[in-house]
Amino acid sequence: MNKGKLIVFSAPSGSGKTTIVKHLLKQEDLNLEFSISAASRDPRGEEVNGKDYYFISLEEFKKHIKAEDFLEWEEVYRDNFYGTLKSEIERIWALGKNVIFDIDVAGGLRIKHKFPEQTLAVFVKPPSVDELKRRLKERSTESEDKINMRIAKASVELATAPQFDVIIKNYDLAVALEEAHQLVKDFVSK
Q1: Mean pLDDT of 92-117
Q2: Nearest-CA neighbor of 33 among 49, 47, 51, 15?
Q3: pLDDT band per the 50, 70, 90 thresholds, residue 112
Q4: pLDDT tens per residue, range 65-96
Q5: Annotated binding residue at 39?
Q6: pTM more than 0.90
Q7: Cα 189 to the chain's mean position, in Å?
Q8: If we measure between CA atoms, which residue out of 50, 100, 31 comes closest to residue 108?
Q9: Comparing C-alpha atoms, which of 163, 160, 153, 174 is closest to residue 80?
Q10: CA 18 to chain centre
Q11: Which domains does the chain have, with CATH numbers?
């Protein structure tokens, strides 16, 4: 596994990383393909298996861990696993494309450590924790308890920002989108 570039976007839930990644995927000059993560949870809202995530059972996820099928994986919440299958990266590189990730902070840093020269690790910083909470509530996809769990996790995640190559402050979405596009464009053209 040593072919294309890897672009990691990580941030606390509600920071805007998914919006930024979706924008970048539409930019043909970047030659990007989305890395679909595996998840041991059920789909939320409009999520589609094989497009947003590969939804697999907890038992199946643990079998993949034992078989060392993951490039990285994390138990994000109790019995709630997420990970990147090695086969997903190979699939994208076989298409001749660069891989873009929308993953949690721990997974993003693992990829950066495994492929330090090939990876651009970007942390998307929200305006504030209060704004994060407002955005998560606006989604209306999770219970108050789940939102509070995400907010508690956000402070820990925010502390890891300096370990990333670049921090994009998402205070103004249009500015963040432009900054992300330029960063990725410069990185993939090296």
Answers
A1: 94
A2: 51
A3: very high
A4: 999 999 999 887 788 999 999 999 999 999 99
A5: no
A6: no
A7: 22
A8: 100
A9: 153
A10: 7
A11: 4-187 (3.40.50.300)
